[in-house]
Amino acid sequence: MAILSQGETDPDFEEAVMTSDDELEVSIVMPCLNEEQTLGSCIEKGLAALQKYNIRGEIVISDNGSTDNSVAIAKSLGVRVVHQPMRGYGSAYLKGFEEARGKYIIMADSDNTYDFDEIDKFLERLRAGYDFVNGSRLRGKILPGAMTWSHQYIGNPFLSWFLNVLFRTGISDSHCGMRGFSKEAYSRMRLQTTGMEFASEMVINAAKAKLKMTEVPITYYPRAGDSKLRTFRDGWRHLRFMLLYSPTALFLVPGLIFFALGLVGLFALMPGAIMIGHRAFDIHFMILASMLTILGQQVFTLGLYAKTYSLTAHFDEDDPLLVSFYRHFSLEKGLLLGLVLFTIGFVTDAYVLVEWISRGFGALNQVRTALFALTFVVIGAQTIFASFFLSMLSIRREREDQSRHRPKADDQAS
Predict the structure, then answer these.
(1) Do 197 and 322 fall within a single domain?
(2) 25 plus 110 within the same structural domain
(3) Which one, out of 35, 215, 237, 306, has a CA that is 20 to 30 A from the CA of 296?
(4) What is the mean pLDDT of residues 248-252?
């Protein structure tokens, strides 16, 4: 079939595509910010694909404040335009998704880099029962000039690898801009970010929501016009977001490692210096061990705060690690543990004081003992206060759990 030029309409196609909302199978959503060079071509290709595969669908252009002729071009082609005044890649997509009427959503940028003729690959898997279908440029074909070598061989592979290390999504190209998912899957992903990190959030939240995910190889074309990507700024935003979304990797694992190394060093050096080969590990390394122990506990508890907050604020589904922690944790147990640790340090410090008094307040060589005491007083006191704070953070979650399991009034009446 011939692709419609701007302003032309096909009556048969209008009948197939412009149906009532409950009959729409697909919504193609494209964000737009001054894309007059490519938007018309993208819309025409999207309409052609819908007609070619006999899909009942619509095209939604989410305008992000264009100042060129983009909106006029979209309207001249008879597609729906929605407006998102809040700037940002994620903001534009969120508005478009909310306005989409189809059972399935196909998202793709409006810069002519994606082939809309490939939407059948996405639909085939969505119809087969997958919730989320990701396009993969890295496993497909990247045409010459479509992607810089640093993005193709360093940036995208590294960020996708790192995302999989943290979240185990199994997705090879976590920043591909062409994806498909059901409207129900969209509601389960709970997307919130407004910038370029939106691409990472979608894959991460899809995995956290336990959506049935797969990917399809696609072709990536050179874009026309200037790219809105900023390599280092956007790369950092993706990396930062992944770390913030993974308190386990950012806080818990480093904190536990620091704490364990510090505690081992503290006990090992308490009796005296250790010789390893011709090297002596003495008081300076014990100071380092004390610092690692205190720092490790602080970082670990920050991780518990972050994970608890992510649950109470509904950023995350129930985390098995945290669920297990709260199954055994209570304020009283935390206070008891903190009190025991504090008492160990306090008694040890009391021993140093008694030793000093017995020497007539003279010279005293109890640096190791004092370091040991200081460490346990600090981690004991921190454990006590951390237990109070964790209990405060978990109050909302406990109330929600109770309300979730409380019988409804109708059930009680029956």
Answers:
(1) no
(2) yes
(3) 237
(4) 88
pLDDT at 364: 77
96 and 154 part of one domain: yes
Domain termination site, one of 201, 228, 244:
244
Does pTM surpass 0.70?
A: yes
Please report which confidence band the pLDDT of residue 157 belongs to, taking 50, 70 and 90 as the band edges.
Answer: very high
pLDDT at res. 237:
78
Structure tokens at 279: 């090297």
Range of the domain at 378: 247-402
Closest to 267 measured CA to CA, from 290, 244, 245: 290
Let me know if residue 4 belongs to a domain: no
Tell me the C-alpha distance between 44 and 77, whole Å: 8
Tell me, yes or no, whether 385 lies in a domain: yes
Please say whether the dihedral angle defined by the alpha carbons of residues 268, 269, 271 and 274, taken in this order, is positive or negative. positive
**In terms of domains, do 129 and 230 share one?**
yes
Tokens describing residue 210? 């336990």
C-alpha span between 48 and 43 (Å, rounded): 8
The span from the CA of 302 to the CA of 299, in Å, is 5
> Are residues 287 and 358 both part of a single domain?
yes
How many angstroms separate the CA atoms of 116 and 98, rounded?
Answer: 21
The total of other beta-carbon atoms located within 10 Å of residue 225's CB is 12
Confidence of residue 409 (pLDDT cuts 50, 70, 90): very low
CA 227, CA 291: separation in Å to the nearest integer? 47
Please answer whether residues 141 and 217 qualify as being in contact, where contact means their C-beta atoms are separated by less than 8 angstroms: yes
